[in-house]
Amino acid sequence: MSLFILDTDILSLYESGHLPVRDRVNAQLPGEVAITVMTVEEQLSGWYAKVRKAKTPKDMSLAYRHLAATVVALARWPILDFTELAIGRFR
Q: pTM of the predicted model, to two decimals?
């Protein structure tokens, strides 16, 4: 079995409803699609930054709402570790 791994850009397109990406991802068998822990970090870091920069209650509320929705969305995917072996290969 091969894994279909979504990077951050593709996951963002999937979550925003990009039809060709959604069709391709949804065509995979259950359990054959995953994300990496780097994607989790990138997605959450973006919302953490928005929360910290929010100046108004409206902006803060919106940033926290998106952060919570992102956590829920990420939880539906298996998350692949960045192992020492993978880090060595990456370097």
A: 0.85
